[in-house]
Amino acid sequence: MQIFDLYSTKEEALDFLDRLSSYSDALFSVKDKDKAWDKYFTKEEQRALLEVGKGMWEDGSQVKKLLTKLQEMVQKLPKVYLTVALKPTVLIADHIKQKLSQVLKGVFFLEFTIDENIIAGAILSYQGVQKDYSVRRNLELGT
Predict the structure, then answer these.
(1) Which tens digits make up the pLDDT trace of 49-73?
(2) What distances in angstroms separate CA 102 from CA 13, 79, 95, one per listed residue?
(3) Among the three residues 24, 47, 75, which one is the final residue of a domain in this structure?
(4) Is the dihedral of CA 101, 83, 12, 21 positive or negative?
(5) Are residues 66 and 93 in the same domain?
């Protein structure tokens, strides 16, 4: 499992990276590193992080190096842009990502734009290709 498989949106991944940065800073000042580990990461994140860097999580300088590498990865990952009428819940965003993962294969982030004018459905853009699955489009086409 890649660490970024845990996140549907770039914002979620950036939040994780912020927590990783805070954890890295805390390693220089805390005595109980296990408490810091539990404070900053969920159990699922901990499992994924242990896969990424075995034995390095108590060394702040190693964590900083990994943080830099992960930040670069976030910027390079492809994005699927979705325009929707309402902001989706985390559960719905995760479901959308799971469905798209079956087609797109690989790690990507969802980026949502809210446009109430589409009424319902979505407009999907990926690598320069746009597909309009909105109710507004169907009404305009008379279907």
Answers:
(1) 888 776 666 666 777 788 788 888 8
(2) 21, 15, 11
(3) 75
(4) positive
(5) no
pLDDT tens-digit map of 102-127: 888 778 889 999 999 999 999 999 99
Task: Answer with the one of 75, 97, 115 that is the final residue of a domain.
Answer: 75
Side-chain-side CA neighbours of residue 48 (13 Å): 15
Among residues 15, 16, 7, 1, the alpha carbon closest in space to that of 97 is found at: 7
Going by C-beta distance under 8 Å and a sequence separation of 6 or more, which residues neighbour residue 80?
100, 104, 108, 109, 110, 111, 124, 125, 126
Residues 98 and 135 in one domain: yes
Q: Are 23 and 126 in contact (CB under 8 A)?
A: no
pLDDT of amino acid 55: 65
Domain residues for the domain of 57 are 3-75
The 10 Å CB-count burial string (b at 16+, else e) for 40-60 is bbeeebeebbeeeeeeebeeb
